[in-house]
Design goal:
9 helices; 244 residues; two-stranded antiparallel ribbon; alpha/beta; single chain; binds NADPH dihydro-nicotinamide-adenine-dinucleotide phosphate
Length: 244
């Protein structure tokens, strides 16, 4: 909805990824003044459409629309983003459901290194509903000892230096400096920011952090593409569940 430039880039990338993997996608580009009732009616129509397996509403929506009501209106079995309260609840209690794409992608990245999280100290910086909180739950599920830091955390550097696994999901360019990282730590940078030159960068000061970290994910080209890959994975899982 509306003309948020970042949203337009994300939507374009998702459409391209669908095309690349032979998933048929449909875009509904709505003007910013669309009413909540009109958006809910569209979601209801897609919920009932048997040719549709996955639905997502690109966030943020304009302020006159309730994000919570929109997310709750998507059929949980078509909730490709994994944001519906039923899927969030399933994540909390450890039942199968759709996982939010960004933290799901981060787990795949960690797994690709062969790193065993059991007993390890994991620190997630950020506590949003779409990244930080579900990320902490997924790490906990894998037997890490998890700390969640946020804007009110005192002595952030002291907390992050304890981390064997450090996930930065803040939205502040280069907030995490090399001296905030434990030597050899596995660092995943979720942030997508612009630096002082307008260049895309993460929450981690990557060039300096590379000297300290054992593993580090780049921005761009790290968590972003993984998020889209997990969106496609969730959609395919929705098909498999429908056919099961
Ligand atoms: P939110 O703004 O919703 O949350 C940011 C979190 O960071 C909050 O919990 C906030 O704390 C915390 N925070 C803010 N400032 C500080 C600070 N100085 N020290 C410690 N914690 C701080 O952002 P999102 O979770 O939606 O996104 C985070 C970043 O990840 C953004 O850069 C976003 O663009 C990126 N992103 C990337 C995706 C991808 O696909 N690559 C997908 C989703 C997000 P508090 O709760 O106290 O306010």
């Amino acid at each position: 909805m509306g003309d948020n430039p970042a949203s337009q880039v994300y939507v374009r990338n998702k459409i391209k990824a669908c095309a690349d993997t032979s998933i048929q996608s449909f875009e509904y580009r709505l003007p910013a003044q669309t009413t909540e009732a009109e958006l809910l009616a569209l979601i209801d129509r897609l919920n009932r459409d048997d040719s549709v397996d996955g639905i997502l509403v690109q966030l943020p929506v304009p302020r006159h629309i309730s994000e919570a009501r929109i997310i709750a209106a998507i059929a949980p079995e078509k909730d490709a983003d994994g944001f519906h309260p039923i899927n969030v609840g399933n994540l909390v209690v450890g039942r199968p459901g759709f996982l939010p794409c960004t933290p799901y992608g981060v787990m795949k990245m960690i797994d690709s290194t062969g790193y065993d999280l059991t007993g390890k100290r994991a620190v997630v910086v950020g506590r949003s509903n779409i990244v930080g909180k579900p990320q902490a739950l997924l790490l906990l599920r894998r037997n890490a000892t998890v700390t969640v830091a946020h804007s009110r955390t005192e002595n952030l550097a002291e907390v992050t230096r304890e981390a064997d696994v450090l996930i930065a999901a803040v939205g502040r360019a280069k907030l995490i400096k090399a001296d905030m990282i434990k030597p050899g730590a596995l660092v995943i940078d979720v942030g997508m920011n612009r630096d002082e030159n307008g260049k895309l960068c993460g929450d981690v000061d990557t060039a300096a952090a590379m000297e300290v970290a054992g593993w580090i994910s780049p921005v761009p080209g790290g968590v972003g593409p993984m998020t889209i890959a997990m969106l496609l994975t969730n959609t395919v899982e929705a098909v498999e569940r429908r056919l099961a």
